[in-house]
Amino acid sequence: MDDRKYTPENEERMIEEAFQDVLNGYLNSNHRKKVEIIERAYRFAKEAHKGIRRRSGEPYILHPIAVAKIASQEIGLGSTSICAALLHDVVEDTDYTVEDIEQHFGKKIAQLVAGLTKISGGIFGDKASAQAENFRKLLLTMSEDIRVVLIKMADRLHNMRTLGSMAPNKQYKIAGETLYIYAPLAHRLGLFAIKTELEDLSFKYEHPVAYQRISDKIKSSEAKRSAVYNDFSAPIKEKLTEMGLRFEAHSRLKSVYSIWRKMETKHIPFEEVYDLYAMRIIFDCDDVSQEKTICWNIYAAITDLYRLHPDRTRDWISNPKANGYQALHLTVMGTDGNWVEVQIRSSRMDEIAEKGFAAHWKYKIGEGDEESELNVWLRTIKDILNDPSPNAIDFLDTLKLNLFSSEIVVFTPKGELLTLPKNSTVLDVAFELHSQIGFHCIAGKVNHRLVPLSHRLQSGDQVEVLTSQSQTPQAEWINFLATAKAKTRLRAALRREQQPVMDRGRKIFEEFLSKQGVPMTNEVLTKVLGVYRLQNREELYVALGSEDLTLDDNCVKAFKKQSPSLLTKIFRRNKVREEFPDPAPAKNKINTKETYILRSDDNGSNFKIADCCCPIPGDDVMGFIDENGDVVVHALTCPRANVLKASYGSRIVATRWAVETGEFLASIRIEGIDRMGILQELIQMISTHLAINIRKLDIEAENEVFHCDLSVLVEDTGVVTDLCNKVKKINGVKRATRTS
Questions:
Q1: Nearest residue to 585 (alpha-carbon basis) of 625, 534, 551, 555
Q2: 664-738: CATH superfamily
Q3: For a Cys-Cys bond, which of 157, 359, 472, 566 suits 562, CB 3.0-4.6 Å?
């Protein structure tokens, strides 16, 4: 800590200036001016946190002030929320209670503080996130007052902005959690600006080198990009001015994270990301009923100037997104021969796009009118919460289905509009209409054509559901459902049907353990599930109850493999534990607060490579301490790693590759124009000139185009990059990219 920076006089001035900044922003807003209660909340919080500092060394009170500023100026909330933001850590970190808050500031502020205090642990705190109960509390509180989660979003944004002072393993955990839960939640609430910043900050801490590289390339290409944009936008601005519109137009640059995602998913370099920017037109309109007409008039003016892409027009005005987003998007051919997206919005639509449901309250027309989509979503969330005992990870994944960022709109035969996640099926529509329709669904008619219930729907489809009373829910349906509501209802129905079988299986299992003299604990259950490769206890009980599985000596052997001391420890521990076991003691004690060096030598490796992503030296990676105490290495881009970071924070360890770690398997995809002798050239280039060991090679040619899947042994990512660059120089090869 720099003592010169934090002298008492400097601190006091810094704190007062920060609070004055919050107050000035509030006074410039449209909210009623309740300055007195905000000042009281500030003085109360300042006194409560007196003498406490953040990890960065600054006075703690600066954090609640920053959260209040975000809630007020970036989300658009009013005095009640500002007070709750200032007080949000008082009950958690000091001796004050919710009752004290209510006595000083009234019931509403106390309820918000209580809601924020409830969710400070679990997924949103330092404790192991596998406790889904804490997430339930957030969602239940959210359904009572949406402002709780909006303030929580402001809290997370400030924590991400100041993440640099945390230890590396904490950075991974918080960044992963943010990307897995908070960013989709921000999107679902319509907080687009916050969602984008959360994604970029998470990416910055998880992939610092890639983040810096893309940022530098954006900066270096700025002048060229500005020139192209000015050439493109000048005729449009001229035309709109002639039409007498009051408007502003600017270019919106793609975020660093979304550029990187495009490069990763499409396997292309930065130079081939052509849609780096979009043009945004925001016009003033005092009459809401005229907005749609003006949007389409601007659309007509632009398509008179530039050639339209026929498949990339999006009308979010007639059919707003589920998070309230409204705009008209079109894509036209730019002056440089690349496609450019143009977004057309009124100033009202723009505020809702940036501030989401908080802005809806400002423009509310009828009671409940603007929040109807949010209420539908919250009802679905309550539906998930009613599921009696979901596995914590399943629970998060199911919830993620409802935080969808890609949506489709379909219609019933009566013209009712349904908003669903991308990849939804006829069966999803059936469950959306009613659970009983879902249970008895046998097929569907899409655009008057008969289709199976697994048929994936497209936006604009008209869907009719066909049912039969003889149909019953099937376990395999879970594989082609995309909505959280449908999955939750189906699982509940299957459980009801299987309950007698499960009861029988549970009895068999308990009697078996009793004969072995082994108490029923989660550790024991985990071992048995591992032996028979089953996912959860329900699967085990059903298999036993239906006599598809018989317990044998393999179970006993699984227990005996453990050291006697560990076995005794497991069997004697009778108190109820978390659903997920702690890792066994590591062979070498691992300090999760320090960076773990990944090494290989003649005696083997001090880590395991995760099968799901197969990282190699040079990849950004993290370690996860498994049940056996081993460090399993995942690529930070791996979807499974995101789940682990969001769910097992205490078992994440920051890792770094040693200088020499050994050889690893890498997969490469090569594509090009087929010709005589190209395979021989490829093999010669790789094995002779580059001296790389080929372990597998599959090549297929069709209609003069070839695809080659190659597995090679390499030391690090640099070798793979060099290999791809050299292979691309072979005549006929058009693309060479690493696939894993």
A1: 625
A2: ACT domain (3.30.70.260)
A3: 566
Full DSSP string of 674-721: --TTHHHHHHIIIIIIS--EEEEEEEEEETTEEEEEEEEEESSHHHHH
Q: Is 93 considered catalytic here?
A: yes
Active site residue: 11, 92, 102, 709, which one?
92
Looking only at the bridges linking them, the beta strands covering 596-598 and 652-657 are parallel
Using alpha carbons, list the distances in angstroms from residue 295 to 238, 245, 289, 298.
16, 11, 11, 5
Q: Which two tokens stand for residue 337?
A: 């021969």
As a residue count, the chain comes to 740
Which structure tokens are listed for 186?
A: 């921000």
Exposed, middle or buried, 506 (CB in 10 Å: 0-12/13-18/19+)?
middle
Dihedral angle, C-alpha 212, 218, 219, 224, nearest 10 °: 160
Residue 477 CA to residue 454 CA, distance in Å, equals 8
Token duo for residue 235: 């005729």
CATH 1.10.3210.10 correct for 8-161: yes
Cβ-based burial of 563 (10 A; exposed 0-12, middle 13-18, buried ≥19): exposed
CATH class of 215-355: alpha beta
The active-site residue out of 11, 21, 39, 93 is 93
Q: Quick check: pTM over 0.85?
A: no
Q: Answer whether 529's CB lies under 8 Å from 549's CB.
A: no
Q: Do 631 and 653 touch, CB atoms closer than 8 A?
A: yes
Domains 8-161 and 215-355 share a fold: no
pLDDT digits (tens, 9 = 90+) for 50-92: 888 887 778 889 999 999 999 888 888 888 889 999 998 888 8
For residue 646, give the amino acid letter. A
Q: Which helix (H) or strand (E) holds 421?
A: strand 417-421
369 belongs to the catalytic site: no
Residue 469 makes CB contacts below 8 A (sequence gap 6+) with: 440
